[in-house]
Amino acid sequence: MNSDLPGWIRINGMRFWGVHGAAPSERHRPQPIDVDLEVGVDHARAAASDRLADTIDYDALFRLCERVVTKESHALLERLAAGIAREVAANPSVRCVIVRVRKPRLLEGATPEIEVRLRTTAGRSLEAELGGPPPHGAGSEGRS
Question: Mind giving me the DSSP string for 71-138?
Fold first, then answer.
């Protein structure tokens, strides 16, 4: 089948509780972390077949984000967003990933946001794009 129906899967407004932050006060208890995810995919096969197996399952994407935020711990939001992007991009159907991570109302009511974009192309190393090897399981990265 000719693969020519590019598009996006978006999941916005996910909120999870995780231990992430550079400040010592952020390392003692979970805090809210908001995540938006955009996944660039080719919808041709799914549009033709109408089968979940021919696309990327929204629930699986949600659970992946949940696991990374709740089971890993990082000092920087950049590292957290890159970890999510790496794991999503491991799916061969993914063309690109955009991850936005926020800590709501952290700075006297203001909300800092980090955005990581990852474009996957044949022969391109994710390690080179994001600086380091992909994680090998929950909790394998982060601070001690």
Answer: H-B-S-HHHHHHHHHHHHHTSTTEEEEEEEEE-TTTBTTB--EEEEEEE--TT--HHHHHTSPPP-ST
Total domains present in the chain: 1
Q: Evaluate if residue 133 carries a pLDDT over 90.
A: no
Any residues with CB less than 8 A from the CB of 133 and at least 6 apart, and which? 127
Considering only residues 70 and 129, tell me which one the structure prediction assigns the higher pLDDT.
70
Largest CA distance in the chain: 54
Domain contains 138:
no
> Is residue 93 within 8 Å of residue 42, measured between CB atoms?
yes
E strand or H helix at 65: helix 58-71
Domain of 84, in residue numbers: 6-130
Q: What is the pTM of this model?
A: 0.79
